[in-house]
Amino acid sequence: MAGHGPATDWGDDKASDYKERLGIYLFIVYCVVYAAFVVPNTFTPKLMGMIVFSGLNLAVVYGMGLIILAIIMGIISNNMCTKAEDQMNK
Predict the structure, then answer these.
(1) Do the Cβ atoms of 80 and 22 come closer than 8 Å?
(2) DSSP state, residue 7
(3) Following DSSP, what letter does each residue of 17-50 receive, concatenated?
(4) pLDDT digits (tens, 9 = 90+) for 4-32
(5) Contact of 66 with 33, CB cutoff 8 Å
(6) pTM to 2 decimal places
(7) pLDDT over 60 at 1, yes or no
(8) How far, CA to CA in Å, does 38 sit from each of 25, 26, 48, 87?
(9) How far is CA 51 from the centre of its chain?
């Protein structure tokens, strides 16, 4: 039984260097923001128990902020990579 080849020919992605750099930059930004969450949790955990918004403590608000930030960064990355692919792979 013979297999079939690829459904489409993807060819070379001329935007791959740009997409790689963008991914690394966004990863570094997220790591810095995440480290700013981990350090206070490690050294001053009582700070994270402080109520900051609508009865929620800082840990919950910051944690939800990290999740929302990751989603926003994913959308930004997708849009920027798609734009770069459209421009460079013509």
Answers:
(1) yes
(2) S
(3) HHHHHHHHHHHHHHHHHHHHHHHHHHH-GGGGGS
(4) 777 777 778 888 899 999 999 999 999 99
(5) yes
(6) 0.79
(7) no
(8) 20, 18, 10, 39
(9) 27
